[in-house]
Structures are given as C-alpha cells and as structure tokens.
Design goal:
The complex is a heterodimer of chains A (433) and B (440). Chain A has 433 residues and is α/β, with parallel strands linked by helices. Chain A contains 12 helices and 20 strands. In chain A, the strands form 6 sheets. Chain A has an 8-stranded parallel barrel with strand order 3-4-7-8-9-10-15-16, surrounded by 7 helices. A 4-stranded antiparallel sheet of chain A has the order 5-6-14-11, with no helix packed on it. Chain A has a two-stranded antiparallel ribbon with strand order 1-2. In chain A, β18 and β19 form a beta hairpin. Classes of the chains: A alpha/beta (433), B alpha/beta (440). Chain A: Belongs to the dihydropyrimidine dehydrogenase family.
C-alpha cells in the first residue's frame, strides 16, 4: 500500500482527505466518528461570536438528481455553527487531544473589523488546533450581514482581513475562496498578498436547485418562500477544477498552496484535484450522501493508483497536470483525430448518430441493420459521440499519423506543432521566424 | 438432442459433443467490464448494510462494489478476500439469492437485487488472474498447527494461520485438495478447474504443507496430532452417507449421489460419463439437485427428483429448485422409497406417498429407473473424535471442541448451514481463536 501521508502547509495528516467545514464537522460526536472512519483531517464548521446564529426550521437542502436518483448536486441554506462558541471550542480541544495525528483546522467567520479577529484567534489557539481557515465563501445568509462571500468578493477586504489574522496568530492560515466572482486569481492574489499560507476552494455556488410548480416557490421552500443557497457536490467539480488550475498555473500565484474542494466523491476526483495543483482535498457532499465510510474507497483507490503508477508519495501527484493546462491559443492545430466506433462493443442505440446528425457534423452513417460507422470525410473529432455513448470505450478518438491525409480537408497531417497565434486565418498572426 | 437419448440402460455419449460443451459451460458467464460497471452502479452504499449482515463471512459488500464502480477491482478483491479467502469460489457457489442478494434493499425495492455474487466474481477473478496474492505472512511464531481436511474450512483456517505466522500441515484423505469444492459441487458451477486454481492461489501465502491421501484413523490418530502439533483443527467434512432403507437397495445402478458428482468432476471428458435413460434422485438438498441437473445435462431422458416432504421443506433453495425445473427435472414430493425392483440391476423404484407428518398413505408410485442416486444425507465418520452434539462435533462459537487444543469447523462441526461460505467463516474464526491461544 502506498504511503498516503500528507503534509499541507506544515500540517500533517495520515492521508490527504479532509472533511470540509460544513454540517459533518459541526460537533464532537460527528468529528470523532469521522476520524474513527479514517478521515485524515477536518475543518471544523465555521465558528462565530455569540449570540450564535439561528437556522431556519424548515428544509435546508435542495438537490439535483441524476438517473436512479443519484445525488449529483446539493444546495444548502444552512449558516455557520448555531451552537455557542465555547461549546465548540471545548469540543475541538477534546477531539484534538484524543486524535493528535489527525489534522484539526478551525473555520472562522467574524465581522470585518480587526478587533473580533484579534479576540477569537487566541481562543482557537488555546484548543491546540493545527490551523485556521477564513470563511470568505458562504454565499447565503452570512453574506447579507457583510461576512462570508461579501468579503470574498472584494479582494481588498480579503487582503486586509488576512493581514489582521496573520498578525494575530502563529497558526497557519488558509483563506477559503468563493467561486461567485469573475476571476478567481484576484481573490487568490489578495489572500497571498495578505500573507495567507494557503487558499482553499471552492466554496458553494449561488443556486436555486428547482421550483415547486404547485407553490411557485423555489426549493428548499420555507413557508412558501425560498432563498438562493450554495451549490456543491459532483456537479460543481468541473468549476472547481478549473479554478484550482487557474491559480496553480498563474505565474504570480505560483507556489501558493491550495486545498481543493468541490464535488470530490471518489479517489479519482481527489487525484484529479491533486494533479491540478491541490496539496490535499476537502470533502463534504460525498460524506453527506454516503456517510463517513466513503473515505475507505478514497484511501484504497488512491493507494492502488499510486502503486500501479509507481508513485511513492502524494506530493509526487501534486501539480503534475499543471504544465499541461494551457490557453486555447496554445493548442496544436496540426493535431488531427477521428472518431472510431468499436463494432464489437456497439449496442446500436443510435445516440451517437442522433447527436452528430442533428446537432453536429453529419459524420456518422447508419445502415439498414443499425450499424453505425464514422464518415472520416466529415468527422471533426469533436468528441460529442464519445460523450453521449452509453458504453465506455466503445467510441474512441484516434489520432491520425503525420504524413497521412485528412479526408475531410484533403490536407496532409503535419508533424510539427502550430497553434492559432501563427495560423494564417488569425488577423493578428505573426509569421513563424 | 443426440440420437442416443432414447437408448435404455446406462451409457455414455448420449449427446453430440457440442451439447456437452454447452451444458457444462459456466452457469453464469463472468460479467465483462461494462456489465460490472452497470451492475455496480446500482449499489446504494447502504449504511450498516443488510447484505453484510446476511453474509456468513461479513464481506464489506458496499465497499467492494464501490471499489469496482471507481475502477479499482483489485482493491475490491482485497476487501473481499480479507474476510473470505475463498471469495472466488463463494462467488460461484453461494446461494446468494438466500444470503446477500435476498437482503439487498433493491430486492425489496424492485425485486432485482444488485448482482453481488457476480460482482464478487468479477473482482476476485480480476486479481487472481494476474497471479497477485495480496497477503503476506507475519513473523514466524514457531508454532505448528495440524489441519485435518483440505476443504473450504480447512484451507481457510490454514491460510489465516499461515498469515499470522504459524506453520500449518493440512492432511486430506483424497488425492487432491479442495474438499467439496473439488469433489462435491456441480461441474457447471465451477468450470475450468477453478477449485484447483483457487487452492494454488491460496497456497501462495506460504507456510502451508499439504499431505494428501492420509486420513484421521488411516495414517494418524487425533492423539498423534495433539502430540506432534501445538493445535489441531478438524475439518474433514462428512465422509459417510446414509443408507437407503428400502427393499432391494443393493441392486446395481443404485449409488450415492456424492460419488456420481465426484466422478463427474474428476472426469477428463464428460461425454465418457455413463448415465441412465431414466434417472431417479432421492433427496431434497443441494446434492440432490446437483445430481439431478447434471444427470439431465449428461443426456438422461427422464430425471425425477423425489423428496419425502413438501417443496418448502427442501434444503435446496428456490433458485436451485427452479434451476432443476428449467433443465427438465421433474420434482415429486411427499414420497418415500419402499422398494427397488429389477433383476440384478434396478429397473423400477417404488415409492409410497406420505402426508406432512410422514405417515404412509398406502398410495404408491412406480418410476422406471436405470439409475438411482441417493442424496439422503451424509454422516460424520471417524474414531476417537471429540464429543458430539447430535451427529456432529460439538463446538463453541470459535470452534473449540471438548478436547483441549482441538478445534473443529465446516460440515463436521455443529452449528451453521452446510455451505462453503459458512465453512470458510468457521475456519477463519477458529484460526483467530487458535492464534489467540497460541500467542496470547
């Protein structure tokens, strides 16, 4: 079994799987169960000052389902912890004492002034926690009170608060970012300027999951009304991966540690975040859907993957895909591929045909006996047929060898690399020297 | 159908070669990768899952299925084999419809459980076919344990003990290891010599010495073993068979179903195995069904399974009964054999119908028969064995017998169903207890 031990901004944990600050980490009871189940660390649900907040007494969650009622996306309108500050602090201390090898991070959200931060940080330090995470991400409820994403959407505030926190604690500081912005590099840069040890992302996305068509009210519905919530779960993973990669590949932000969050459900999701530059991952929806035991599959899966690749430590995966994330204008336009349908695997459903014929390039032929074949003369290798095919590996994209002729364009496939910046159709192209 | 199916008497080669090949191929062909993913996707990853509770070896079924779903079948196999070292065979022979799959919540929801047994086979085959043995031995303890019987209980116990660092000697009366996996299970449930493949794979752990062709009371006694070893595990199964209490039962053509099944399993060419045109099987358990179905598959024209009680009392599961019916086996209930007729060889067998209280009704039934297979139960044989509980060795929860230093499990021991998976669990649990006693 591979060595999954992780060290993130100096914080050690037995594996890179942490539970994100959320309902699963709200109480001692839950967190003990989480550690017993094998989680490497937790970010304790966000603390604030007393009087503690109150939550609605109706539904807090809304969901988006896939086939077979698989939960793909979850939306919530829950606020930060609704228990007294001291209760949480006492519990954090007790758990950390009993689980010294697991990472204990405490999420914080207090008003946007220096005094409250100065006041709460020593209280957290006293628990023996390993670090703090600044919740600049929550998009509902708290943001209306000038906290959460209301801070996270203004880079100057992020920098200012981060600086206060760094000046008032010896603990490592993670700044949790909201995705409800236009360019994630700006808030990440602000966190870095403020002295943050790391950023974590993404927090949840503003969302309404569905509308009750009898009540004409958004869900979750509280007495006939609904408010937007924060969206998370497998559905948000692509958005999170992109934001993580944007930070990881930015020259200004290079080296800023990232804790990856957003739809991590399996070992593979976690490995993808790591490859795009996250030093570890945080999980919430998968645990809320399947229970804490889900981490066992993440551990065995990541370990198997590392063994099969000869990867000795988690750090060897971190950032490994970052050099391959680029801008569109850097993609090789001389690369030519064609779809290929494996007739032995094809079950003749015709979805590829419908997709290509109706919405793409009319590059798939259908015979009387429902045999589907690719018309190379028309195929632009868009990949849509691959994506709609219900059978894994049935349709594949095959690269054409340089020197052969692309029957679609009649041009010989060139062996050299050439991108848009030098393409003759580009009005601002510069001739290759 | 070959031309020889109407030939009376007991003859081989009743079918054409293709029919034999088809009849004795895999009952459930292995899932391919696509089928496995589709099947795995249906698992809900239930909390404290009912399927785990229903499994005698407590395999973490939701976890292994999720590991298949996430593309790590070898991790899935490890999850299975950690609990059940013969998870490969159990995937083939377990009556899953009465165990894990019966408990599956999707059985409750839709009448269609997750295909747990077939997924288990997918994972274990995936690992074993690469020759990977994912377990290794702990530091040697210097202790030596004797295991009597190389069936599922004995091998499971031996593997666990070897893993814990003990040296193990396994003795078996037969020429080959495997016990009922090798000699007692229908050919179509474990084709391709899987029983031996699995034994070879299991022995890769090291530290296990096999001694075949030697039995308790025939080569060694229990006292010998107690003297020469630090502990003894008895798992010799049931070596004897119950006698048929009917007039003329010594006629030619009347034989024990277990011998028929064993001969068929050991046959290099099933087409060479002779079978009657009219076959009658007496009994209502798995052995009876295995014999009846295989008689049919060998080309017997008429196969009748006769059981003394109602179908609901049969030990064979409903799935097995339906399998027999689907192969054309006629099932007659509430009838007990009273006489075997024939001049030297059996020609007919006579039954009397009985009521639910097994009281004779005076009504009789005569069935033509070239061959009669008795599957009316097996018995423990052996001298100087520990105290019995009824007809089996009395054991505690962890397999301890009345004799200090002697454990027992599998079919020869009391408690538990006589299933492969139960035997594996008993062997494993006894090994853990032996380990506790030996090293504290």
């Amino acid at each position: 079994m591979a060595d999954l031990r992780s060290e993130f901004i100096g914080i050690k944990s037995p594996n890179p799987f942490w539970l994100a600050s959320a309902p699963p980490t709200d109480k001692e009871y839950n967190v003990r169960r989480a550690f017993d189940a094998g989680w490497g660390g937790v970010v304790w649900k966000t603390l604030g000052f007393d009087p503690h907040v109150v939550n609605v007494n109706g539904p807090r969650y809304g969901a988006v389902f896939g086939a077979d009622r698989r939960l793909l996306g979850l939306n919530n309108i829950e606020l930060i912890t609704d228990r007294p500050l001291q209760t949480n602090l006492d519990e954090i201390k007790a758990v950390k004492r009993d689980y010294p090898d697991q990472a204990m991070i405490v999420s914080l959200m207090v008003p946007c002034e220096e005094e409250p931060w100065k006041k709460i940080l020593p209280m957290v330090e006293e628990t023996g926690a390993d670090g703090v995470e600044l919740n600049f991400g929550c998009p509902h409820g708290m943001s209306e009170r000038g906290m959460g994403s209301a801070v996270g959407q203004v880079p100057e505030y992020i920098e200012m608060v981060t600086r206060w926190v760094k000046a008032n604690t010896r603990m490592p500081v993670i700044v949790k970012l909201t995705p409800n912005i236009t360019d994630i590099r700006k808030p990440a840069g602000a966190a870095k300027s403020g002295g943050a040890d790391a950023v974590s992302l993404i927090n949840t996305i503003n969302s309404i999951t569905s509308v009750d068509l009898d009540l004409f009210a958004p869900e979750p519905t509280i007495d006939g009304k609904g408010a937007h919530g924060g969206y998370c779960g497998p559905a948000v993973k692509p958005i999170a991966l992109n934001m993580v990669a944007e930070i990881a590949r930015d020259p200004e932000l290079h080296g800023l540690p990232i804790s990856g969050i957003g739809g991590v459900t399996t070992w593979r999701d976690a490995a993808e975040f790591l490859a795009l530059g996250a030093g570890n991952v945080q999980v919430c929806t998968a645990a809320m859907t399947y229970g804490f035991k889900i981490v066992q599959e993440m551990i065995s899966g990541l370990s198997d993957y590392m063994d099969s690749k000869g990867i000795a430590s988690v750090d060897e995966i971190v950032g490994r895909a970052v050099p391959n994330v680029t801008d569109w204008n850097q993609l090789n336009l001389n690369y030519v591929a064609k779809a290929k349908i494996n007739q032995d695997l094809c079950i003749s459903c015709g979805r590829c045909f419908a997709a290509c014929e109706d919405t793409s390039h009319q590059a798939i032929a259908m015979s009387e006996d429902r045999t589907f074949t690719v018309i190379d003369e028309e195929c632009v290798a868009c990949n849509l047929c691959v994506n709609v095919c219900p059978v894994e590996e049935c349709i594949t994209m095959e690269a054409m060898t340089p020197g052969s002729t692309d029957p679609r364009t009649g041009r010989v496939v060139q062996p050299d690399y050439a991108n848009w910046t030098t393409h003759p159709n580009n009005p601002s192209a510069k001739a290759a020297e | 159908m070959g031309s020889d199916v109407f030939q009376p008497g007991i003859t081989a080669g009743r079918l054409d070669p293709d029919s034999y090949a088809e009849h004795f191929s895999d009952l459930h062909p292995r899932l391919d990768a696509h089928e496995a993913l589709v099947a795995a996707d249906r698992c809900y990853f239930c909390h404290d899952a009912p399927c785990i509770t229903a499994c005698p070896t407590d395999i973490d079924i939701p976890l292994f299925i999720r590991q298949i779903a996430t593309g790590t079948p070898d991790a899935a196999a490890k999850t299975i084999l950690t609990q059940n070292i013969m998870g490969g065979m159990c995937a083939r022979v377990c009556p899953t419809e009465a165990l894990c799959e019966e408990a599956c919540v999707r059985e409750a929801a839709e009448g269609k459980p997750v295909l747990i047994g077939q997924l288990q086979r997918y994972a274990t085959d995936h690992l074993q076919e690469q020759g990977i043995h994912p377990f290794s031995r702990a530091a040697a303890t210097g202790k030596k344990v004797a295991v009597v019987g190389a069936g599922p209980a004995g091998l499971s116990c031996a593997h666990r003990l070897a893993m814990l660092g003990h040296d193990v000697v396994v003795m078996d009366a037969r020429a080959k290891p495997g016990g009922l996996n090798e000699y007692g299970i229908a050919t179509y449930k474990t084709p391709g010599g899987y029983a031996q493949t699995e034994v070879d794979w299991l022995l890769q752990i090291g530290g296990i010495t096999l001694q075949c062709g030697t039995a308790l009371g025939d080569g060694f006694t229990l006292d010998d073993l107690r003297e020469g070893y630090d502990a003894v595990f008895l798992a010799m199964g049931l070596g004897g068979v119950n006698a048929l209490d009917a007039e003329g039962s010594d006629k030619d053509g009347v034989r024990d179903a277990v011998d028929f099944i064993a001969d068929l399993r050991q046959a290099s060419d099933v087409a060479q195995v002779p079978i009657g045109r009219d076959v009658v099987v007496i009994g209502g358990g798995m052995t009876a069904v295995d014999a009846a179905v295989q008689a049919k598959l060998l080309g017997a024209l008429n196969v009748t399974l006769v059981y003394r009680r109602g179908r609901d009392r049969m030990n064979a599961s409903v799935f097995e009964q339906d399998l027999a019916a689907s192969k054309g086996v006629r099932i007659v209930t509430h009838a007990v054999p009273v006489a075997v007729h024939g001049n030297g060889s059996v020609r007919e067998i006579e039954f009397e119908y009985v009521d639910d209280a097994m009281k004779g009704t005076g009504q009789t039934l005569r069935l033509p028969a070239d061959q009669v297979f008795k599957a009316i139960g097996q018995t423990l044989i052996g001298d100087g064995i520990p105290e019995l509980d009824g007809r089996k060795i009395k054991v505690s929860e962890t397999g301890r017998t009345s004799v200090a230093g002697v454990w027992a499990g599998g079919d020869c021991a009391s408690g538990g169903d006589d299933l492969t998976v139960t035997a594996v669990a008993e062997g494993r649990d006894a090994a853990m207890d032996i380990h506790k006693v030996l090293v504290g």
